[in-house]
Amino acid sequence: MIITSTPLRISFFGGGTDYPVWYREHGGAVLATTINKSCYITIRRLPPFFEHHSRVSYSKVENVVRNSDIQHPSVRACLEFMKMEEGLEIHHVADLPARTGLGTSSAFTVGLLLGLYALKNQMRDKHSLNADAIHVEQEIVKEAVGSQDQTSAAYGGFNRINFHTDGGVEVERILADPNRLAELESNLALFFTGFSRTASEIATEQVKITPHKAKELKAMQQLVGEAESIVSSPNRSLNEFGKLMHESWQIKRSLTQKISNASLDEIYEAGLSAGALGGKLLGAGGGGFMLFYVSPEKRAALRERLKKLLCVPFGFSNKGSQVIVYEPEQEYDKATIDERSVVYAQHG
């Protein structure tokens, strides 16, 4: 049995410049951190004594007679990529719900791939694991996703991630005093605004309009360097980071009309009126988590103002995707597996 733990992430600046359609022409960059909330995937070879060949458990349960019948796009694509046709049992659980802007789907893909490699008794370094996950999501599933979520999940930590025109991805750990990062963490508050049912639709539209939004995306990309400078310079006020978040959100919400809506704008304005210096909706848009930059002394007022929303405490984390349980199990020979098929066929 293999269990992997893969962190979720918060993206501060540069989102949108991590789509290949943009960075393969202009380059791209994001500033993001993983947090102490994770998704966990358990994988084992399914003993050949069940009627089904494989079983996948997430928000629903799938029992299938062949792996190509699996409906979950990422699971099916990962098994295809890894050329795994044997019977498996895969379970997914997470600390926070999916479709909320925290990179859950890419964390799932990264964690599943790492687990499948471990099941084959193979190691995979962060760079290769990230490249595999990007390939699976963009080339096999053909999801309208960028390349930052897989990178944060694979590497972990508070990073500037650069995307190069040749397709290369470079991860630079932000060099800042731990106390500085702890201070930044204490100025952040995360509120759940409800599920985004339109995230993939918004992402698809954003990819489509990317070539027409060069001015906005270049401006968002420049803010990455400015934000990095604020965090890395002990003599600069972190309040500048909050104001920069506000500036970035104003640009992002102008990219398409679907990123925000009246309800989300109302929440954001309520946050500012309660003392937040800035904030942003995480993920593609339409719902999910909203992050605010607010000083600790104004945090209570913000929570009171947004008391209808769930406030989720979190901390920064340096851990990338990792195998937390590795217990090799018995492998069954082909004769036993074939026998199972014959016996169940008779009862069918």
What is the CA-atom radius of gyration, in angstroms?
Answer: 21 Å
Oligomer: single chain
* Number of DSSP E strands: 13
How many alpha or pi helices? 12
Structural class of the secondary structure composition? alpha+beta
Rounded mean pLDDT is 94
Question: What percent of the residues sit in helical stretches (DSSP H or I)?
Answer: 40-55%
- How far from one another are the termini? 30 Å
Which stretches are low in confidence, meaning pLDDT under 50 for 5 or more residues running?
Answer: none
Q: What global shape is seen? A: elongated
The biggest beta sheet, please? Answer: 9 strands, mixed
Order of helices and strands: EHEEEHEHHHEEHEHHHHEEHEEEH
**What proportion of the residues form beta strands (DSSP E)?**
15-25%
Q: How would you describe this protein?
A:
The chain has 348 residues and is of the alpha+beta class. The protein is built from 12 helices and 13 strands. The chain has helices at 20-26, 73-81, 104-119, 126-140, 148-155, 178-186, 199-209, 214-232, 239-252, 262-273, 299-305, 334-347; strands at 2-13, 28-45, 54-57, 61-64, 88-94, 158-163, 169-173, 188-192, 278-281, 289-293, 310-311, 316-317, 322-326. The strands form 2 sheets. Strands 1, 2, 3, 4, 5, 6, 7, 12 and 13 form a 9-stranded mixed beta sheet that branches. Strands 9-10-8-11 form a 4-stranded antiparallel beta sheet. The protein is elongated. The two termini are 30 Å apart. The relative contact order is 0.18. The model has no long low-confidence stretch (mean pLDDT 94).
Question: What are the salient characteristics of this protein?
Answer:
9-stranded mixed β-sheet; single chain; alpha+beta; 4-stranded antiparallel β-sheet
